Q: What sequence folds into this?
């Protein structure tokens, strides 16, 4: 099973066309469509550009390397 996420615009004809990656073999597949309206945006990204804000990714909260080095430093104290 493969999950593919895309943010697309649905026009007045309510038709959706999706191109699948080469990793999807030609065969009988089940496709699940989840529709969630998004707030209006002032800039629409170009095809292929990652728009991570739409996908619910959290902002970077800590520097993971700095955190790890801090933990190791505690061992030597």
A:
């Amino acid at each position: 099973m493969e999950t593919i996420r895309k943010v697309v615009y649905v026009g007045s004809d309510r038709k959706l066309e999706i191109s699948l990656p080469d990793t999807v073999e030609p065969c009988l597949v089940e496709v699940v469509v989840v529709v969630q309206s998004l707030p209006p945006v002032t800039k629409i990204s170009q095809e292929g550009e990652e728009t991570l804000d739409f996908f619910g990714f959290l902002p970077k909260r800590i520097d993971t390397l700095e955190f790890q080095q801090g933990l190791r430093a505690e061992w030597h104290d």
